[in-house]
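Deliverable D4.2, example record:
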Amino acid sequence: MNTGSRPEQLLSDLLDGNDRHVARADESKFDAVRDAQHPPVVSVCCSDSRVSQEGMWDISEPGQLFTVANIGNRSTTEVDGERVLDGGVAYPVTFTDTGVVAIVGHTGCGAVTAAYDVVTGETDLAALPAGVQQDLDSLITMVENAPVDLDGERSTVVDRLVEHNVREQVEFVATQTDAAVYGFVYDIHHRYGDADGRAYLVAVGEGDPHEAVDEAHRGVVAPLL
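Output generated by the structure prediction step:
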């Protein structure tokens, strides 16, 4: 798909892609989930085009992952002045027997960077579109309260804020549901290690992340904070 293409060509590219999707699906692909879904995991991830929710876990079958995407991988919203679980998280946990919540941030997150720039005076919040202002609101609060030195090297500070945002989300979600909650940072800048696309475990709802994984996966527990 060419990002410089005309909208008509991009539409054709999308439909061609769907043709290939249909051709790869055998007749039984949706049989197990056609009438109901019971995804074991709900994933809350950033909308960033570089981060594929199903791709990072090598999931290709329907019914395995309930996906929530927004800027800054936010798992909560505000209703009548009270912070509550976002509907995209509350729905599967409540109605589809989903028992695991995975909150996934990523290095170089644009939304976290934007919130950081507002707090440090680099960006005027009022100059941004109203919808972006609303979505950045909780991230700005997160930056203001984060135990992170905002005066350090820009990319380093942003990635520490990314991790703190994931941890803070995990902590809150764990108080609102009986589901197991895990927090990851998807690394595309070699901040945590040398492998592109590695998801590093940085938080669990209860206990120590080092104790939550088996021996084979000890290397993915490498928090910055």
